[in-house]
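Budget justification aside, the reviewers requested a transparent look at the raw inputs and outputs of the sequence design task funded under Objective 1. We therefore reproduce one unedited record. The lines immediately below are the structure tokens for a 648-residue chain.
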């Protein structure tokens, strides 16, 4: 390789089929005040569909074209660093419009310093780009680059290491090995990661407003939101690798690899943001597209700009959080958010009964009336020793499987044992524990499945109801208007869907009258603890174990399941006495200072909090499900390709 002793600056420009923009940039270099012999330009073609073509002979300076096959921007910059000969490297984008004195000024700043610094100039949008309404929103804001907070002539931390108009000594870059192209291949956060490693060696970011370069890119709202999703992926990766995040406000993840609790909290936060902002973000993008299509290049008012910037900042949390989930949980919620839960997957509904034939008939009638073609079910009725003809009633019904838990007329083994018998025979990807007094409503299953699938950490999912713990009951206004019955229940269900579609709450405990449980929970914690069978309740312990295993309970605000008080399980003892016995049994098992009621209010949450402060092993929480003669305890886990929302 020939050398030029006068060469001082190498300008690195990665590109991928830019064409006209790149030609415009190369022509700008011909007009620089810096003598052509003092700098070189290295253009790296990152393997776009149309190969980049340049004519070095057409320019006054040394121009090199390097090619790679789609390795990404970080790899392209590293490729250039391998061939650079200047003592200083200046990174520019291929859609840059540098001021005519930019190169000379970068060299001048470095020559005046005795320390090692990265020198960052400005990167405002060009006048042509600002004709687009959304570019006006981004310009002079902190949405794309946070130049508004930079202080001229001051040193700044690594989170401002942006390779849009930034120069660094070549030896310093080579000392740390350049960019991490393997972990950050897509040109997002690759510069921040390099800046972090340089900061550990004492390299700060010096901002100079007089180093002017413009950004000639008519950014669209779709491009910005796609970049926000990538920023979510790679900022989470950066935090996971180093335990440090860039200074993005609302950064949900501040953990480090192996920090299980921080990871769970981060995923929970990302799910909430991705869900909560998904629909408004889609509507906002459509609004901006219409504004762009009708624009004639007029400047937007300051009032409108302020409104749009605020909405962009808030609603970009939807794709950003989606990116966080893709990285942290290997889960993309977009499919569920757009199309709803996976169609065609089997759900097992387990109904337990003892001498409640009339109530069972009503329960099955509602199940049949509310079937959804997209979400098939198998119904398992576990009979705990009924002597009222339940077995004979179910025998001719082809769509129901009856499982005998105990001989007719014998002492009951209890609901926990009955549920475990059902689990041993279940084939579904999800299981629903449905009390015989529960009356489902149209759309109930698909809506519960949405809540189970949209959150990779969702555990037990329960609906609203008209009886039971206060936090699960429908509100007073709904109760005041509700007259129990099939039509009224269906009407109330539709009203809740309109008012609270896809909304949910999180509770430390849920009532188990209608409870949807994904297979991942059953694989982790097994079945119900049969020590609670004499009290008639074991689901609360199951729900708590799921929570302690790291799953999140979800109360589906948009699902209503009616409870028929007259059809509830007959009690062998006084209800108050059974409640007391359950509270004592529950407190004794978990070593609680006082009994816990099922109201799930703040007092109960505080009582359970000590259990959540420690990490529980799977062995401490799991209760194996005994398999039956004809069915495995659980079907094998689905393959990665079959799991909803998994990254390809």
């Amino acid at each position: 390789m020939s050398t030029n002793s006068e060469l001082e600056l190498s300008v690195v420009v990665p590109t991928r089929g830019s064409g006209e923009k790149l030609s415009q940039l190369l022509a700008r270099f011909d007009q620089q005040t810096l003598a052509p012999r003092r700098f070189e330009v290295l253009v790296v073609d990152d393997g776009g569909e149309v190969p980049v073509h340049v004519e070095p002979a057409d320019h006054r300076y040394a121009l090199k074209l390097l090619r790679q096959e789609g390795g990404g921007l970080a790899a392209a910059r590293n490729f250039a660093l391998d061939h650079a000969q200047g003592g200083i490297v200046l990174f520019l984008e291929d859609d840059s419009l540098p001021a005519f004195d930019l190169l000379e000024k970068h060299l001048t700043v470095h020559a005046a310093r005795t320390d090692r610094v990265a020198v960052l100039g400005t990167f405002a949008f060009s006048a042509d780009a600002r004709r687009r309404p959304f570019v006006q929103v981004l310009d002079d804001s902190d949405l794309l680059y946070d130049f508004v907070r930079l202080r001229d002539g001051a040193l700044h931390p690594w989170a401002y290491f942006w390779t849009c108009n930034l120069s660094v000594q070549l030896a310093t870059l080579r000392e740390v090995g350049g960019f991490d192209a393997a972990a950050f291949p897509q040109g997002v956060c690759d510069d921040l990661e390099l800046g972090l490693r340089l900061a550990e060696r004492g390299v700060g970011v010096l901002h100079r407003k007089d180093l002017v370069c413009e950004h000639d890119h008519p950014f669209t709202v779709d491009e910005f939101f796609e970049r926000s999703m990538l920023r979510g992926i790679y900022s989470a990766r950066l935090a996971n690798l180093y335990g440090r995040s860039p200074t993005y406000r609302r950064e949900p993840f501040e953990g480090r690899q192996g920090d299980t609790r921080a990871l769970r909290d981060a995923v929970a936060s990302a799910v909430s943001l991705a869900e909560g902002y998904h629909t408004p973000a889609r509507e906002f993008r459509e609004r901006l597209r219409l504004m762009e299509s009708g624009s004639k290049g007029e400047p937007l008012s300051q009032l409108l700009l302020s409104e749009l910037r605020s909405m962009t900042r808030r609603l970009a949390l939807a794709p950003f959080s989606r990116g966080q989930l893709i990285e942290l949980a290997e889960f993309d919620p977009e499919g569920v958010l757009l199309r709803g839960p996976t169609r065609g997957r089997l759900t097992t509904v387990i109904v337990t009964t003892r001498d409640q034939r009339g109530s069972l008939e009503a329960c099955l009638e509602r199940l049949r009336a509310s079937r959804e073609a997209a979400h098939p079910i198998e119904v398992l009725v576990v009979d705990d020793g009924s002597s009222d003809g339940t077995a004979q009633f179910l025998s001719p019904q082809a769509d129901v499987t009856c499982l005998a838990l105990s001989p007719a007329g014998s002492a009951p083994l209890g609901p926990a044992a009955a549920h475990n018998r059902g689990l041993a025979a279940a084939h579904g990807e999800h299981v629903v524990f449905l009390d015989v007094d529960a009356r489902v409503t149209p759309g109930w299953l698909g809506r519960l499945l949405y809540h189970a699938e949209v959150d990779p950490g969702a555990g037990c999912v329960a609906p609203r109801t008209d009886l039971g713990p206060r936090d699960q009951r429908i509100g007073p206004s709904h109760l005041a208007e509700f007259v129990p019955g099939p039509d009224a229940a269906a009407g109330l269900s539709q009203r809740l869907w309109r008012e609270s579609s896809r909304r949910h709450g999180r509770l430390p405990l849920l009532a188990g009258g209608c409870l949807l449980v994904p297979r991942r929970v059953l694989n982790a914690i097994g079945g119900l603890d049969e020590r609670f069978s004499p009290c008639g309740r074991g689901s609360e312990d199951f729900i708590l174990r799921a929570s302690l295993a790291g799953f999140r309970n979800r109360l589906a605000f948009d699902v209503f399941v009616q409870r028929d008080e007259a059809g509830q399980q007959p009690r062998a003892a006084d209800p108050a006495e059974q409640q007391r016995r359950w509270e004592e049994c529950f407190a004794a098992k978990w070593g609680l200072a006082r009994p816990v009621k099922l109201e799930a209010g703040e007092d109960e949450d505080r009582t359970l909090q000590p259990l959540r402060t420690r990490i529980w092993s799977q062995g401490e929480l799991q209760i194996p499900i005994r398999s039956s003669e004809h069915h495995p305890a659980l079907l094998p886990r689905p393959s990665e390709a079959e799991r909803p929302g998994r990254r390809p």
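Residues 260-293 form the longest helix (34 residues). Residues 247-252, 628-644 have pLDDT under 50 and may be disordered. Computational costs for records of this kind are itemized in the attached budget.
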